[in-house]
Amino acid sequence: MYFCFFVLLHLSTINVFAQQFNFGLDPDSGRSIEQLVHSHGYTLETYSITTEDDYILTLHRIVPRHYCPTSYNRNRKAVIVQHGLFGASTDFLINAPYINDSSKENDNFAFALLRSDQYDVWLPNTRGNDYSQQHVHWSKNVNTEQMEQLEYWNFSFDHIARYDLPAILMKVCQISNSTKVAYVGYSQGATSMFALLSSKPEIAQMIEPFVAWAPVVYMQHIESPFRFLAPMSSVLRSIGNRFAPSSSLISAWSHPLCKLPSMMYICSNALFMFGGFDTEHLNSTRLPVYFHFTPATVSTWQVVHYLQLIKSNRFQHFDHEKLINIERYGSEQPPEYNLNRISPNITIVFIRSQNDYLSSIPDTDRLIQELRNRSHLANVVDHLIDDPVWSHLDFTLGIGAGKQVYQPTINYLNQFIYD
Known about the structure:
Blueprint: H1 2-10, H2 14-18, H3 33-39, E1 42-50, E2 55-64, H4 69-75, E3 77-82, H5 109-115, E4 119-125, E5 134-135, H6 157-176, E6 181-186, H7 188-199, E7 207-213, H8 233-239, H9 247-257, H10 264-272, H11 287-293, H12 300-312, H13 322-329, E8 347-352, H14 361-373, E9 379-384, H15 394-397, H16 401-416
Parallel strand pairs: 3-4, 3-6, 6-7, 7-8, 8-9
Antiparallel strand pairs: 1-2, 2-4, 2-5
Helix pairs in contact: 1-10, 6-7, 8-12, 9-11
């Protein structure tokens, strides 16, 4: 609905935009994640994880071509980099526009971490996206390559916090032979970690530090058109299933379409619409690559959960409606996640921006103050990106992300990383 409105709104200015760019075929266009990693001189390792509720997740690890596992595990610190809603592990690999320009690799967070020679890089995929759409008891449709078992899609970030993240943490610690990991969570990756730390305070013993990029917890002041869907949350909850077409279907139409000069303006603004407008930091010639890998498929309930946060102005568990809430929670309303339960010993670093339509300054201010005042956290670091137009999507797709986000993140990892 909003996409169609956006097309009509900007149709008159398409040709002006198109004349500003010279479009060519991007070398990463159409590559698989294995080919993408290999083209940068690294190797992709893939691990499967089965959660307690029988979902099968895919965990990616990026390593040098030739390495000794024993010394590698001993000399590098494990870092989990968790994607957001509509995201996947590839989000941290696709930003740099040229495969052979090493200076550009710092605009890809996973490669920037590797090039520091200090970190062991782990990129999980939470349930539902194309890499983790598997289950012990249900299989994908062989024709659509999508999970069509409706019950499979009955999950939100509640389930990611309760099942996915603990399983991922345990797997990474096991393989890296470590008792602690650093955790960088982007958007929903931060949401789910705050939910986990509130529910299981003991998990904090495994994490140092927790770096929250553009965290979405409170949503009272969001400016995104996403807020207009909030009145539909009950209807969408009843419908369930997956929220969007498969990423392969989106790629099929966007791959040729977004290379056309007449369509680039529409494609770029389709990205910005929900996260904040910032054409200044968008490499428009890279759009076919972005749409090849994103957006990833998500559950409708994942979207609904955020809409419920907007309506309630609370950081709460999923609202199943009155009768099911009583059965599951023992109350008509879903309980809040109690931020007071977060261990005061963990270090939390906020990296946020002023032009973020989803993770607004007033809402993140509220979260930071609650953590400092109510939860008594000794180490809450607040890093505000100084670029006034930096948006939600720029954290993973912005030109200059290496300077604005990735290098500061690595500096904080260097400062607070576990012993």
